[in-house]
Design a protein that fits this description.
The protein is α/β, with parallel strands linked by helices and about 400 residues long. The protein is built from 10 helices and 20 strands. Helix 2 (about 80-95) packs across helix 4 (about 140-150). The longest helix has 18 residues, at about 315-330.
Length: about 400
């Protein structure tokens, strides 16, 4: 690793150091006054106030977010530094009752800014870790991170798959290729358990790292309301919510535009319940399905993909949430329950709630909030980085 004395320096404009002093892990390009040295994308740099006071250390990138900070204390970012970061992340998940849980072996070990490692995601599926670098900085040291994971997890991990091909900045021109860094697996996927339910995960072809681990707590909550109900799981992907609902629902329909996802949803239902006529998967457009359906469901789950990944798409995303929720609220049976979510980071909790409020008002139906939900403990929100609270959910009672 590069030693501290050789690191390039990023000098901020006067008055622009306040967010860093408040431990926000991003330095925006507009705050940079000058650059000492010639850092390349992904290089480790030090950040200084206009009076040359040291502020932080992080990875450099020539974009809107110029530095992603991983330390507010001067450090040598070597193997020992990152091992301590990973050790801290693992111990936190042990304390939270997530790592080492006998009924759940699919969980997140590293959640970017939430664990002080912005740009790095590591998900655990049984004995396999799936790594995603979202910055050139962590992509350059992915092998170092991978080699630390078996030791940090006490031998739990014996294979590490790098799935950074679709998450790295395009302009970085790194030419990444997904593949195993450590170990291997002839079967691209495995069966994992979550709260005792079994799911087949395909990290090579699946979305994200293969499974939406972040909905674990919300899936558990669903079981409290699905008993005896006719359940519609929209944007159902591989049937996570559907499997939980099948434990006590009268009927469960899973809808997604991906036929391959629906095939995996069917397999996951079968893994847990065998051949069960209560479940049906439907590969079709979600908006079209909602528009054409009758009032046959009394519990609906809306878990769409991110409608906005950038601030420029925010207004369009909010319109999408309003339209989607209005259709569901209009079509659900009286006394129905709606689980509705947004996973868009740029959509705030207030933005999302306001969109659902407008949707409800447009239908004229009486709506009560049963729960306001978010992401589980292994997707921690950094209190200094509110942007890391990306998953928002509402559970509504519709009269």
């Amino acid at each position: 690793m590069t030693e501290t004395k050789t690191l390039a320096g990023i000098i901020l404009k006067k008055g622009k150091e306040q967010s860093v002093r408040r431990y926000h892990p991003w330095v925006f390009s507009g705050a940079v006054d000058s650059v000492r040295g010639k850092p390349r994308e992904g290089d480790v740099v030090e950040v200084f106030a206009s009076d040359s006071t040291y502020l932080a250390t992080g990875h450099w990138a020539p974009g809107s977010i110029a530095v992603r900070i991983f330390s507010f204390v001067r450090c040598t970012p070597d193997l020992y530094f990152f091992k301590k970061k990973l050790d801290d992340a693992f111990r936190y998940r042990i304390s939270a009752g997530i790592a080492g849980n006998k009924t759940t072996d699919a969980w997140r070990l590293v959640h970017g800014e939430g664990d002080g490692l912005p740009g790095l995601i590591v998900d655990i599926y049984g004995s396999v870790a799936v790594l995603q670098a979202h910055t050139a900085g962590f992509w350059h040291i992915r092998k170092l991170i991978a080699e630390l994971l078996p030791e940090v997890t006490g031998g739990l991990v014996n294979a590490v798959y790098d799935k950074s091909e679709g998450t790295l900045p395009f302009m970085a021109k790194l030419n990444p290729a997904n593949g195993y860094i450590i170990g291997g697996n002839n079967d691209p996927g495995t069966v994992v358990t979550e709260n005792g339910f079994r799911f087949r995960v395909d990290w090579e072809k699946g979305q994200k790292t293969g499974f939406f681990i972040d909905q674990r707590d919300n899936r558990s909550l669903l079981r409290q309301y699905s008993g005896g109900r006719n359940v519609l799981n929209m944007f159902g992907y591989t049937g996570g919510f559907s499997v939980y609902a099948m434990s006590n629902a009268a009927m469960v329909h899973t809808v997604d535009s991906s036929a391959s996802a629906m095939a995996l949803a069917d397999e996951n239902v079968k893994l847990n319940f065998g051949e069960d006529a209560r479940h049906k998967s439907i590969a079709t457009d979600a908006f079209g399905f909602l528009a054409g359906m009758e009032r046959e469901y009394d519990l609906i789950i809306l878990d769409p993909p991110a409608f906005a990944k950038h601030q420029t798409a925010l207004n369009q995303a909010l319109q999408g949430y309003r339209r989607l929720n209005a259709m569901a609220i209009q079509k659900i049976k009286p006394g129905g329950i709606l689980f509705t979510f947004s996973c868009s980071q740029v959509v705030s909790r207030d933005d999302f709630r306001r969109s659902v409020f407008v949707a409800a008002a447009n239908t004229g139906r009486n709506v009560r909030i049963l729960h306001q939900t978010g992401q589980p403990a292994d997707h921690p929100v950094n209190i200094y980085h509110p942007e890391s609270e990306y998953l928002k959910g509402l559970v509504l009672y519709i009269e």
